[in-house]
Amino acid sequence: MNKDLIGALMWGGGIVALALIASWARSRGMIDADMTTRLVLVATGLMIAWFGNRMPKAFVPGDRARSAKRVGGWSLAISGLIYAGAFAFAPLDVAVMVGCAAVLLGIAVTFGWCLSLRQRAAV
Predict the structure, then answer these.
(1) What rounded mean pLDDT belongs to the chain?
(2) d(CA 41, CA 21)
(3) Predicted confidence (pLDDT) per residue in 26-54, tens digit
């Protein structure tokens, strides 16, 4: 199996396992609902950052494709860390706004960079 696929499946299984363990701990009164939500969402943010870190390491032919992967990887990694940090430390209503804005901004930066690469190629 592909190394990236194994990593993605491990992240998915790990988040599901974390959610089940957190739900069990909440039902036993060990943690509250807020902590359950935060644990799963911080893990999701770390997964986004991990995918962003892996993105530029994949081989692609062409300078523009490598450039797009580098910028996309950086923006995804940084936005994932901001997302995880927001859900770890900020109040939930603020964390939702900050985390979602960070991920959307990361997507917009990547999309804008790809459009600029396309315009430079056309000239």
Answers:
(1) 92
(2) 14
(3) 999 999 999 999 999 999 999 999 999 99
Residue with tokens 């994949």: 58
Interacting residues of 2 by C-beta distance below 8 A, sequence separation 6+: none
Spatial separation of the C-alpha atoms in residues 58 and 9, rounded to whole Å: 18
Using CA atoms, how far residue 117 sits from 60, 64, 73, 101, in Å, is 15, 7, 16, 24
Please state, in angstroms and rounded to a whole number, the distance separating the CA atoms of residues 86 and 45.
9
For the residues of 57-102, what is the DSSP string, one character each? GS--SSHHHHHHHHHHHHHHHHHHHHHHHHHHHS-HHHHHHHHHHH
Q: Which residues contact 67 (CB under 8 A, 6 or more apart)?
A: 113, 117
